[in-house]
Write a structure and sequence with these properties.
Length: about 210
């Protein structure tokens, strides 16, 4: 579990803060559970994007013990059945290394195989300045409900008109299946969503609660 909430900044010593471009003077070590792992990783990525939480100290590397299920989904390649929002969200904000793969070893108290990963926040996220991480996360979470569908089909989850948002997205992506898209291509879709004139009409309430 994470040891620092997004509001408990009192435990972070400002003396340890470093500019984002410099090597961090702190390291985060966490252990993720199967039940809350997705939520914990999403929180870490939001901290990276906002330079908040532990990342108020700078580009702090995060070492984490993760259940094999999470590891599989984080490193899922294009076309894999495990390819989804977790891979899309993680690789847009961080460089991820698999440091130790614990084969056939169960770790108490989780009783599942655990792997050691390192997340290093990117110096520059793959997102353009016009698209926030919140918008990107919202788009990939929404679209990957139908991860095996073509973009032209899944776009209905975001755009009830079925055309106005799609018109802003490069045409070479329209007939691609979501699990076959590169992270950079998902960024293009999110960037189109961020400038879509009907975004607030259809999604302002959802984005404000996200």
């Amino acid at each position: 579990m994470l040891g620092i909430s997004d509001t408990s900044t009192t435990r972070l010593d400002p003396a340890h803060a470093r500019p984002w471009a410099e090597e961090a003077n702190a390291t985060a070590v966490i252990m993720l559970s199967e039940k809350l792992g997705d939520l914990n990783i999403a929180q870490l990525l939001r901290w990276m994007a906002d330079r908040a939480g532990i990342h108020a100290l700078g580009r702090v590397p995060v070492y984490m013990m993760a259940p094999r299920d999470l590891t599989t989904r984080i490193f899922a390649e294009r076309g894999s059945a495990f390819r989804g929002r977790l891979a899309a969200m993680t690789h847009v904000m961080a460089d991820v290394d698999l440091l130790l793969e614990a084969e056939d070893k169960l770790m108490y108290p989780f009783k599942t195989e655990m792997d050691l990963l390192r997340l290093r926040p990117k110096l520059e996220p793959l997102l353009p300045p016009t698209c926030s991480f919140l918008e990107y996360e919202y788009v990939v979470r929404t679209l990957f409900v139908k991860n095996r569908a073509r973009l032209s089909t899944a776009i209905k989850l975001l755009d009830p008109t079925e055309s106005s948002l799609l018109d802003l997205i490069p045409t070479n992506l329209h007939n691609r299946k979501l699990w076959n898209l590169e992270v950079e291509e998902l960024v293009d879709i999110a960037a189109a969503f961020s400038r879509w004139p009907l975004k607030n009409e259809f999604h302002s309430d959802s984005l404000s609660r996200f």
